[in-house]
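Entry 14: structure prediction run for Type I-E CRISPR-associated protein Cse2/CasB. Input pasted below.
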Amino acid sequence: MTVPERHAAETHFVTALGELERGSLAELRRSLSYKTGQSYFLERLIYEHLPEWYRGGWGNQAAFLVAGLYALVERPHSEPKTDESDAETVPETSKPAAPRNLGSALGRLYRAQENRPSTEKRFLALLDADEEQLADHLRHAVTLLNAGDIRLDWAQLLADVLSWSRPENRDRTREQWARAFYRPDHKANDVKNTEPVSTQEETE
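Run finished. Output tokens:
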């Protein structure tokens, strides 16, 4: 499977999350407190939309984690606030696009806060997190971004979280996040990760 095909599958998975009913999203929010995923409907979405390496082990945990984080801050069924005068003067294209990865998103927040030290400290702690610590640090990061009204590319986050179980892939993701956080004007930082993430299935 090529990288574009994988990203398309991850995007379809996120789209399916947005189509879930409120009760299912609430269940996903509660699942953040679980050690492993315990949702039959989410398992179905994983099997329907994601490659086979998401169907067990760390891949399954990554899908459950990102789904729970999505449900924590996204409200796809909320009624949009409409104002006819605003609709006429603010075109849809004026809304800011989601940053290309989590480092870019947190960097945008950091600069909006005039380089607040606590935000940088949280980002550095996230970079240093292992698999056991990752969920807690990501929950803090996603909550901060939501409070700052900064969108996330959830499909890219899913791919990046998947990389965390293999040291060489995790290190590459950390480097990409750090570069995007500290060097926002560098052209390469606004490009999605095009490096293939090695999985156990691909290497056997």
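Notes: The chain has two domains: 3-73, 97-193. Will compare against the previous run tomorrow.
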